[in-house]
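To: structure subgroup
Subject: Chain for Friday's discussion

All,

I'm putting the inputs and outputs inline so they're searchable in the archive.
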Amino acid sequence: MSAGPGEGDLPAGIGRPAHRALAAAGYTRLDQLAGRSARELLKLHGMGPKALGLIRIALAERGQSLED
């Protein structure tokens, strides 16, 4: 995993709109997303199913997950 535009350890593959949406909501690190609701994240403007899927994979690699 590589850092997104300018900060944190979010997966780079999620794209800039998703990075911006997460940063605007205060999420800059992957561990901040563990246990968060997938539905909540999808409500953020710029987040989509692809980004959510990549976040799920990255969290799973750490033994963490989103709340469903």
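Points worth raising on Friday:
The chain has one domain: 14-61.
Confidence is low (pLDDT under 50) at residues 1-6.

D.
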